[in-house]
Amino acid sequence: MKPNIHPEYRTVVFHDTSVDEYFKIGSTIKTDREIELDGV
User: Matching InterPro entries, A to Z (predicted)?
Assistant: First the structure.
């Protein structure tokens, strides 16, 4: 892979509003929001 061209991969929290559940998933989405889930 070429260096410095790939987005940063991180763990994010997805909120499924249809069932009001939160899931930890891997994503390259950029965000400045933070949430505490399961004490982490």
Answer: Ribosomal_bL28/bL31-like_sf, Ribosomal_bL31
Q: What is the pLDDT of residue 21?
A: 95
Measured CA to CA, the distance from residue 18 to residue 29 in angstroms comes to: 21
Cross-strand partners of 25: 12
In sequence order, what are the residues at sequence separation of 6 or more whose Cβ sits closer than 8 angstroms to the Cβ of residue 15? 21, 22
Tokens of 31: 């965000």
pTM given for the model: 0.64
What's the CA gap between 11 and 34, in Å, rounded? 11
